[in-house]
Amino acid sequence: MQPTPDFDPGKLAKSLLRRSRQGALATLMAGSGDPYCSLVNLASHPDGSPILLISRLAVHTRNILADSRVSLMLDERVAGDPLEGARIMLSGRAEQAAAAEKDLLERRYLNAHPSAEGFVSFKDFSFFRIRPTGTHLVAGFGRIVDLTPAQFLTDLAGAEDLLAAEEGAVEHMNADHRDALSLYATKLLGATAGDWRCTGCDPEGLDMQDGQTALRLDFPERVTDGTSLRKMLVRLAGEARMKVDD
């Protein structure tokens, strides 16, 4: 089934990856290979790939350590019939975090799930990152598409300066610019007023959250360093303020 001309499947898949905080994780039972499904919390890497914090005591973790192949179902959780909302089934391999990336995964996961700070240091818990091999998107009639990772992950090439500045930028936005975050959410994204805070940024956009409700603010152009990020956020705040005056 082919998508309609006005449909951007890559953009929708990216949005679901960034906004999802829970998903159904399917693994293969160690020994038998039988399918096993469990509910997990997740966050996103700067490139959009899912981050998990899971315990070695859990069946799904033991399964992953025996066979890293997994799939992850994410959906929009719309009101009414859930089958009317968009969803993706992402396939890939779950890899335990290398020492070099543990701090990044931990920071982004805790930004999305602050309550996990109470057990993140437990010895049986580890961070895993799902390296996608593809995804199947279902978004309604005429909108069923298979996508490659290049179509739904964010290219981080040339954005090293931005990634280095991200932690400080997130802290600065949350400490000094909560008013701007509120404007982004309510005036640019149509969300209700709330305690909106920044959870991450990348070359293509800004992630925000109020409780477990997450939003994605896409940038009109790609940014690759701290200076261009600051200019973009000032520009978007100006656009949001103009909508207040309308």
- Which fold name corresponds to the CATH topology of the largest domain? Pnp Oxidase, Chain A
> What structural class do the secondary elements suggest?
alpha+beta
Could you say what the CATH architecture of the largest domain is? Roll
Q: What is the helix tally?
A: 7
Largest pleated sheet? 8 strands, antiparallel
C-alpha Rg (nearest Å): 18 Å
The tally of beta strands, per DSSP, is: 11
CATH class of the largest domain: Mainly Beta
Overall shape: it is globular
Strand fraction: 25-35%
Order of helices and strands: HEEEEHEEHEEHHHEEEH
Distance between the termini: 42 Å
Low-confidence stretches: none
Number of domains: 2
Mean of the pLDDT scores? 94
Key terms:
246 residues; Pnp Oxidase, Chain A; Split barrel-like; alpha+beta; three-stranded antiparallel sheet; 2 domains; globular
